[in-house]
Amino acid sequence: MVKVEVGGKPVFEIPCIEGVNKTMKNGTRIRSTTTKSSSSKFSWSTSVSRLVVTSDTDDFDEDILAHFREEGFQIWYLPYDGDKAGYRKQLEHLSDPLELGEQYGIVAYGDAAAQVLESCMRPMPKLCAVVAYYPPHMPKTSANFPSSLNLTIHLAANQKFGTRHEKSYRYPGTKDGFAESDLEEYSKPDARVAWSRTIATLRTGFGMEPDLEGVVDWHNRLKWSGKEDDVEDLMKSVGKGAVLNHAPTMTGGIGKKDLKRFYSEFFAERNPPDLKTKLLSRTVGSDTVVDEMLVGFTHSVEMPWILPGIPPTGKRVEVVLVTVIGIRGGKVCAENVHWDQASVLVQVGLLDPKHVPSSFKATEEGKEKQVERLPVFGLEAARKVADESKGKSNELISEW
């Protein structure tokens, strides 16, 4: 039922569970068992993308809801209490408050996901995208989902049934619940990959095209400026709880407080004045930008992020950095940086490729004597990445 309040704003009255159940049992949320219903007014703002998040609990993972809001979605949470008929009726009327041209999407978890998939086998007006996390079963029909619907299904490894839908993904080693951080089954790496796919589906459905490259370019310009004065602005480019990790040296930090200290004291104005970066390639995903860049410098100052504790050597260093930058809500939420640290150590004289430690032993006795050098190169390795014609391939393979 749709009614119009004073001011002409459409309001949709739907039944909802009274009260919020936030109790936990052995680290697992207790499924909603409340049957008493009340009337709740549900209205959409017309200025943002509308998203219904639904699961079989009265409460839901607050981090997930917050992340959706950061991405610009107006969220309404719909609990599924096991009443299939009542729940299906709610789903059928979700579009009632919407005007011509307005759309909404659904992200569903567990038992609610199965019900949503059943419902959207037939076209649902104004529904542009559906993401289903670990539904316990798929619709029992030979029909296909509407071709106009952007749909993605995430399955846990313990869900053995298949799906004909091309955008369905199974996550090895997981159990249903792997995407929710307040459950024991939570798997952060798998949840992160699933989130990227979810965001891609929703953005396609709503026609959203955020400028991820612009965010990264702004962040990188401030990061590599070499000026401590730019750190304050740099902090505006990262989100709350952002993570920076230089993988080979495990330098960086978690959260704005740590990052501000790291960039202020151990990065800005701690790089050589001749340091230069050159972008070699860029891959843009739904919420991630991967840059491959050539970084060159003279090791004239101590550099805590790449050579912590090592005094200046005056050596020339060239290395390829791969930065994986996650973006949420228009800000950097995670940055993992990778490079060949062995190559850096060779270039500054801390690692001699011709020195094979006497402690090295092969599984077959005597084979270690055949090792003449370590399988590592210096700056030539980086130069070959920048230009494949610079250097020969397979020089370390004796049979080549």
From TrEMBL:
Stored InterPro entries: Cyclase_SnoaL-like, NTF2-like_dom_sf, SnoaL-like
Sequence ranges assigned to domain SnoaL-like in this UniProt record: 228-333
Source organism superkingdom: Eukaryota
Gene3D superfamilies: 3.10.450.50
Protein known as: SnoaL-like domain-containing protein
